[in-house]
């Protein structure tokens, strides 16, 4: 190694012995691995057999066999848990062969049991079907009976209503007949009274016209009153209806009969309503009335 130049900077000399350190480290590791391998091999060796000999006491003692010194025990290695090998598969012993006759009997018995079970199941299903059918028939019979009872009740109610209607119509007709009879009786009595009064009077003229031609002014007065109660809005002047009006001596209308219709139900109804509203009708100038009046009602005259 050359010394540093005087006056120059100091330099660290290079070291050339690194390979020695590496070699030494490798050697130490090799020795350690060898030691470990020897220890493991010693543990795996089988134990040494020890033999002993028996000597007679009379025989001179032989020199004792030197006892070898035990080798140093290596450090115990960690215990490795080994998985136990799978247990060998145990095959079931072969079943003894069955006697063919016994096997045939067993098959027949099984078949009979299956047929019996099938018959029982069919019987159960048939019973359920019969029960359902019986319930359905009972329900239908009950519904039919209810319908018949309802129809019978409706027929009874209809017959009763028809009977009541006929009874009411009969009572109404009887009442109308009674009223007409009473009016006719009253009219006859009034006519008798008027006729008797006229016979006793000094003039000797009749109080009632029983027939013949109706006075024009009297008929016009009646039409005028009926016209005032007529409610009809058609412009067809060709409409014409003829009615017979029956009245009491007081002018009260007791009957209206259509002799000839106009062809219009609305106009005919309007004329009939106007006649009914016009009761009592006007009298003649002498205070008498015509029992029956046959009057024509032309729409052109009713405006």
TrEMBL record:
Q: Where is this region: Disordered?
A: 61-102, 137-171
Keywords associated with the record: Membrane, Transmembrane, Transmembrane helix
Against InterPro entries, the record matches this protein to:
Tol-Pal_TolA
Fetch the Pfam families from UniProt. Answer: TonB_2
Any one Gene Ontology cellular component term annotated for this protein = membrane
Record's keyword annotation contains Manganese: no
Write down the SUPFAM superfamilies for this protein, in alphabetical order. TolA/TonB C-terminal domain (SSF74653)
Biological process terms from the Gene Ontology for this record are: bacteriocin transport
Q: What is this protein called?
A: Cell envelope integrity protein TolA
Q: Which organism is it from?
A: Duganella radicis
Question: What gene makes this protein?
Answer: tolA
């Amino acid at each position: 190694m050359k010394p540093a130049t005087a006056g120059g900077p100091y330099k660290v000399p290079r070291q050339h012995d690194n390979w020695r350190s590496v070699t030494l480290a490798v050697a130490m590791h090799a020795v350690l691995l060898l030691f470990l391998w020897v220890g493991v091999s010693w543990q795996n060796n089988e134990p040494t057999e020890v033999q002993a000999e028996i000597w007679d006491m009379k025989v001179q003692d032989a020199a004792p066999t030197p006892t070898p010194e035990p080798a140093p025990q290596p450090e115990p290695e960690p215990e490795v848990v080994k998985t136990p090998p799978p247990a060998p598969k145990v095959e079931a012993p072969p079943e003894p062969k069955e006697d063919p006759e016994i096997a045939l009997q067993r098959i027949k018995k099984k078949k009979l049991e299956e047929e019996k079970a099938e018959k029982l199941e069919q019987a159960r299903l048939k019973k359920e079907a019969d029960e359902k059918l019986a319930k359905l028939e009972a329900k239908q019979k009950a519904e039919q009976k209810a319908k018949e009872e309802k129809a019978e009740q409706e027929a009874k109610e209809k017959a009763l209503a028809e009977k009541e209607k006929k009874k009411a119509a009969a009572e109404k007709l009887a009442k109308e007949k009674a009223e007409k009879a009473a009016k006719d009786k009253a009219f006859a009595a009034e006519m008798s009274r008027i006729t008797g009064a006229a016979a006793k009077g000094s003039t000797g003229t009749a109080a009632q016209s029983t027939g013949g031609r109706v006075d024009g002014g009297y008929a016009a007065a009646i039409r005028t009153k009926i016209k005032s109660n007529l409610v009809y809005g058609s412009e067809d002047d060709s409409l014409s209806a003829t009615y017979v009006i029956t009245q009491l001596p007081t002018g009260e209308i007791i009957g209206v009969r259509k002799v000839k219709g106009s062809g219009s139900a609305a106009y005919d109804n309007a004329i009939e309503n106007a006649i009914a509203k016009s009761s009592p009708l006007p009298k003649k100038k002498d205070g008498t009335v015509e029992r029956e009046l046959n009057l024509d009602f032309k729409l052109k005259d009713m405006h």
